[in-house]
């Protein structure tokens, strides 16, 4: 249940919090977040899927996961996604289950695009592992870089008021009726204005990655 904190000046952080919260829910549904201590077979049976992930050694070097963790992650990923990739419709279906009181379609679309780093319309095991590595074990700056990429919808290196408003509306739509007190219709736009007053240091109407990180770290 959301509280009056939604009306505070700190709302600009809500987007980042919801990113992590919703992503953890996604992992839970896919069975990827419960790292058990049970023995895992060394072989990952990659031949059973159509999409073959990169060598474990490479993923281990690039991510913050151990080889055993990657094996467990891949086993869960393979069980839920036999094709080896997740498409946007699957993302939307997952989020709709965890936010039935609202409409998570738009937010799931934005989040999917953040995970789909090569913009080919699907999220591979490698894409998911790298995003997960940042969200769960990345440094503060890495997480903020990832969040900036989510907010920067058109990927031009700047966050505009329109982009931030789209994200805020998507978050409110996803949370639906579970907010208390009930938010005013113009609340998202008001919070965007607050966001830009704090982060747009040179008042040029856009927020750069440096402005975003500096403001969030403060």
Question: Rg from C-alpha positions?
Answer: 18 Å
CATH class value of the domain at 21-30 and 57-137? Mainly Alpha
Helix content: 55-70%
The N- to C-terminal Cα distance equals 26 Å
CATH architecture classification of the domain at 21-30 and 57-137:
Orthogonal Bundle
Largest sheet: 2 strands, antiparallel
Enumerate the strands of the largest sheet in spatial order, edge to edge or round the barrel. Answer: 1-2
In CATH terms, the superfamily of the domain at 21-30 and 57-137 is EF-hand
Average pLDDT figure:
76
Name the beta content range: under 5%
Strand runs, count: 4
Question: Strand-and-helix sequence, N→C?
Answer: HHHEHHEHHEHHEH
Shape: globular
Unreliable spans: 1-18, 28-50
Q: How would you name the oligomeric state of the polypeptide chains in this document?
A: single chain
Number of helices, counting only DSSP H or I runs of 4 residues or more: 10
The SS-based structural class is mainly alpha
The CATH topology of the domain at 21-30 and 57-137 is Recoverin, domain 1
């Amino acid at each position: 249940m959301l509280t009056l904190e939604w009306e505070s000046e700190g709302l600009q952080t809500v987007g980042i919090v919801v990113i992590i919260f919703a992503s953890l829910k996604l992992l839970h549904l896919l069975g990827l977040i419960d790292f058990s201590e049970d023995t895992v077979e060394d072989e990952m049976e990659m031949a059973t899927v159509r999409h073959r992930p990169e060598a474990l050694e490479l993923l281990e070097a690039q991510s913050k996961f151990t080889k055993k963790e990657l094996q467990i992650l891949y086993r869960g990923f393979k069980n839920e996604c036999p094709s080896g990739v997740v498409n946007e419709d699957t993302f939307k279906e997952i989020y709709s289950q965890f936010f039935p009181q609202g409409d998570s379609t738009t937010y799931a679309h934005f989040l999917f695009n953040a995970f789909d780093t090569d913009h080919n319309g699907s999220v591979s095991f490698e894409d998911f592992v790298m995003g997960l590595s940042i969200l769960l074990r990345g440094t503060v700056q890495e997480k903020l870089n990832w969040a900036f990429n989510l907010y920067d919808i058109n990927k031009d290196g700047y966050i505009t008021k329109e982009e931030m408003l789209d994200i805020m509306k998507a978050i409110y739509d996803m949370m639906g009726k579970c907010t208390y007190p009930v938010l005013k219709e113009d609340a998202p736009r008001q919070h965007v204005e607050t966001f830009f007053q704090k982060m747009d240091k040179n008042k040029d109407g856009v927020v750069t990655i440096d402005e975003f990180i500096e403001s969030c770290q403060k």
